[in-house]
């Protein structure tokens, strides 16, 4: 099934502003095909052969499809916005997700030490808050896994190390 051009337009603009989509869809749904098309387009599509009742039925169906496509685009935009907020704020708040954050540390990892900051490849910065200590380790850009614990506590574990340190996100 091919989506109408308007549905594609609505889906594309959904990322930028879903209130715009609702307003735009409401404007487009107003009127009928005879008002939306030129006389030449209307005749070329063979719509001039329809009875007035058939044309009303077609217009109603088309307006329903446009409204449905707009609603789907709005819901997708809302969900994408919600997901963006969750991803941006992981570590500052729980947001109900128990999934770990998997990333790569920037630079060299030289072990755990209280107060040390760890910058991830995704731009997040985490600071160690407990006394966990591991020394004599040097790894260049290792993979890490930060998992949530109880009461908004997070733990950082570096690939191939059994020790994990309690951390809090600072940026």
UniProtKB/TrEMBL annotation:
The keyword Signal applies. It comes from Stenotrophomonas terrae. This is Secreted protein. Keywords: Signal. Residues 1-25 form the signal peptide.
